[in-house]
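Hi everyone,

Forwarding the result from last night's run.
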Amino acid sequence: MLRRILEKNPYQLFAAAAVADLIILCISWEWFISPLRPQGSWLILKALPLIIVLPGIWQGKNYVMQCTSMLILIYVAEALVRITETGANRYLAILELIFATVAFIALLLYLKPLKDAARKKRLASKS
């Protein structure tokens, strides 16, 4: 099993780990660390899109990774907005920003060779 994990692209592993960490952070943040309401809030559902795309990232599906690279920008934006809050929310927003940025960069680095190959193929077919 470890061999199969190590055979994966390292950027794919970084992206999957960052998304998994982001899922855990979003759920714990809105459920019990610092929810908007004392019993938790419906904002916990913000982790649902990440839960849906995580298997596709783990399997290395290019289309899922492309969509996730756009989706993750929502979490970057939320972190940038919530970083202005006080107390624990500021530190949780910093963590969210770190995880989302790592995921975004890892996804782009994973997809770059694929995009370059597609561009070369397109240019070769035009010639």
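The mean pLDDT is 91.

Cheers,
N.
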